[in-house]
Amino acid sequence: MILILLSTVLLLPVLMGLGKIVENFSGILIAGISGKILHGILGISLFWTIIAFFIPSNIYVEIPTILIGLVYFFKDKLSQEFYTFSKKEFSLIFIISLVILFCGSFYPYILDHFGYYVPSIKWLTEFGLIKGISNLDLTLGQMSIWHIFQAGFSNFSDPFLRINSILLIVYTLYIIENKNWIHLCFLPVLLLFSQSPSPDLPVIIFSLIILNEILKENKNTSLLFAFSVFVFAIKPTMIWLPILSFSYSILIVKSNLKNLILGILIVLLFFIKNIYIFGYPIFPVSIGDFGVSWKPNPEVLKISSQYAILKTYDMQYSYQEIQKFSSTDIIKNWFLIKGIKSKINILLILSLLIFTGYAAIKKKGIYTLILVSLLIKTALVLIFSAQYRFFIDAFFVIFFVIFYNYFNQKKSITVFSVLSIIFIGFLTSPNILQTYLPSFRLGNFMGKFEMKQLYKPSTYDYNNYNSYKIGNLKFNVSEKYPYNFETPLPAISESYIFDDVKAGIFPQMIDEKNIEKGFIWKKLNLKEKKDAQNIINSINNSYKQK
Fold first, then answer.
1. Are 140 and 496 in contact (CB under 8 A)?
2. pLDDT of residue 438
3. CA separation for the pair 531, 534 (Å, rounded)
4. Helix 393-402 crosses helix 365-384 at what angle (to 10 degrees)?
5. I need a labelling partner for 471 at 20 to 30 A (CA). Which of 101, 129, 259, 490 fits?
6. By the 8 A CB rule, do 322 and 308 touch?
7. Cα–chain center distance at 513
């Protein structure tokens, strides 16, 4: 807790100073402390994304950034803005921040933390963006801009990767500055994302803030659209937000198209980043083929696509069984998945139906635009991979809009208090989830409370790995563990080794003397096939050993 607090005390002024610089060029979308910090996050994330093409996001990037932010923070006397809070507001901020810091100090438990978040950050801090990295490990082809932002602060100011906890404190400042209390109802749920640099947390927070600004009829359409596209660039399943802000700008505000230029530049940067590391504009779909030599093997993408379909039904059917589903079976079986996920699927459709009725009764154009945006997003998710985690943000949006004027300060603080106790109970005693909600599998990976986390946030270490070579690529694989969060680079997840060998290919370095030149795939020759099979046998045999 204490070390996360120190990171917060350092980074809030830094981001405020950087935000002041951004505001000088872009104008102001949101006034106050939280507004400056959000501008700072936007500006530094985009700037670091650009330079990550050329240099790693290491301490030589972090320290100058911190110094520049602090210089502007003190030069412009931004600390005075904290005096606008009353004593009661300071007390509320203090209490909520303690809850956030406590929850953020627990062990990370989201599986993507080990297989995607940390490996992405390791690559970014050691090498920057790598051409064709998806050929090495397909998961890395989606490196989020949020991980570039986290990587830049992971060398010195936030080495335990708790940037999401800091963002939750920023969200608290926004809530209290703007007196928009309904947001407090969401904070306890979001505490479950505070232990990892999950992009799900920032996109939910940013989308709720932008939605709030739209409902307040904020006329700065240039920054509304830019922030919306930024959210999409962090996680493309948030496609509904740029659709909404674009529609709001054109149909309601009647904004000039030139106000959308900044957002268009951000989406272009997002596409360029994806083409560079993945080979196509949007991960993981192979739409928009520019013919680059480092794009993934089609067979590997096919395997990935099949796996996404399996995940749609929570791995409860084989791919062959799903292929035989009739149109009725596709819908019926999605609703009848065993466990909690079927309940979430049913709740999604019910929520959309309720919101459709709400929008029809209210007869306000903005509600219709929100509904249409959510329906488009839902349709796209259902087409590609209808996993509940891809549309969970819809529940926040629908609840926010319907109860926008219902929750005052007293009701919101009451809901926050009750839910915080419940979710803190889940974190401190994960056996509750494991016993009463066994289908929520993440509950099985939650670590218990330890006294030492009051000082230092809990983290896992796993340094056991084996080294192999195929062709010109020397690589490392975790021993008896499917992920590579602590494995020295270059590392490959064992599942992708199996997929590559099944496809008859394997990643290779473009320049065997310089890993920074990137990766391509090549077909295996007879010797390499034999070497690859020996590696697979070695991995399989390691699990049989006691």
1. no
2. 64
3. 5
4. 160
5. 129
6. no
7. 33
Calculate helix-pair angle for 145-152, 118-126, nearest 10 degrees: 60
Which pair of structure tokens corresponds to residue 375? Answer: 């329906």
Q: Note every long-range contact of 265-272, with CB atoms under 8 Å and residues 24 or more positions apart, other chains counting.
A: 266/46, 266/226, 266/229, 266/230, 266/233, 267/229, 267/232, 267/233, 267/242, 269/46, 269/49, 269/50, 269/233, 270/145, 270/229, 270/232, 270/233
- The answer to whether the beta carbons of residues 239 and 377 sit under 8 Å apart is yes
314, two tokens: 């929570």
pLDDT of residue 376: 93
Q: How far apart are alpha carbons 512 and 490 in whole angstroms?
A: 13
Residue-level pLDDT at 428: 84
CA atoms within 13 A on the CB side of 197: 29
261, 297 Cβ separation under 8 angstroms: no
Quote the pLDDT of residue 99. Answer: 96
Between strands 473-478 and 519-523, the pairing is unpaired
Query: With helix as H, strand as E and coil as C, how does 373-425 read?
Result: HHHHHHHHHHHHCCCHHHCCHHHHHHHHHHCCCCCCHHHHHHHHHHHHHHHHH
Instruction: Please say whether the dihedral angle defined by the alpha carbons of residues 412, 418, 424 and 426, taken in this order, is positive or negative.
Output: negative
Beta bridge partners of residue 505, listed in sequence order: 523
- The pLDDT of residue 434: 67
- Identify the pLDDT of residue 446: 74
pLDDT for the residue numbered 546: 58
Look at the block and give the residue holding tokens 């404190």.
Answer: 169
- DSSP codes joined into one string, 343-377: HHHHHHHHHHHHHHHHHHHH--HHHHHHHHHHHHH
Q: Which residues pair with 470 in a beta bridge?
A: 473
Beta bridge partners, 521, equal 507
Using alpha carbons, list the distances in angstroms from residue 287 to 227, 279, 281, 541: 25, 10, 7, 39
- Integer CA distances (angstroms), 163 to 12, 60, 96, in order: 11, 19, 16
pLDDT of residue 308: 84
Give every CB contact of residue 13 below 8 A, 6+ residues apart in sequence: 69, 70, 73, 78, 79
Closest CA to 142 of 25, 257, 279: 279
